[in-house]
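Q: I'm a student working through a structural biology exercise. My instructor gave each of us a protein and asked us to get a predicted structure, then write a short paragraph describing it. Mine is FMN reductase. I'm not confident about reading structure output yet, so if you can add a plain explanation after the tokens, that would really help. Here is the sequence I was given:
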Amino acid sequence: MKIVGIAGSNVGTKTKTAMDYTLNAARAQYPNAEITLLDLEEYTIVFGDGRDYREYDGDTKYVAETIMEADAIIIGTPTFQASIPATLKNIFDLLPVNAFRGKVVSMLATAGSARHFLMIEQQLKPILSYMKAHIVPTYVFIEEKDFHRNEIVNDDILFRIDRLVEDTVMHLNVLTAIQEAKDAAYDF
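A: Happy to help. First, here is the predicted structure for FMN reductase. I'll explain a few features afterward.
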């Protein structure tokens, strides 16, 4: 099982902090899983120009191929101007339309205020749905007040992150069982 976490911004610390906690929880709960964090701040990624993702090189190719090889993806994104950051949107632009077919995708978002909680519903979920993701219906929304000195201090948020990891893997297990049953129906 390959799980890829995406810290979807090239600035700030809160989303990275949340993704670190999330992937550490995943490692603790599922020690046999191959877990990778793609912190977009650490990569130099060119703008998508319509090429096949395998035609890029360097960091761009690595990030795109790592996402395409994943079984499950956990996207962490800050909220900028009531939407996703351009760095995350660019990742989607680099990938093919059906990039998330057969993949489970879950999400967490950070924001300065509660007024932006619908960003996932109105911005991120439609993109993921269009790209054929199996979307975990619940997500974690983390406000500024839930952080103190680069740590999450709200126990409810920590509980919800643990549950998000569990829900992601449970969805993946169900999706895998369904696919195996479909494949077994064919005798060739």
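A: Here are two points you could use in your paragraph. The chain is about 40% helix and 20% strand. The chain has one domain: 2-184. It's a good idea to check both against the output above yourself.
Q: Great, thank you!
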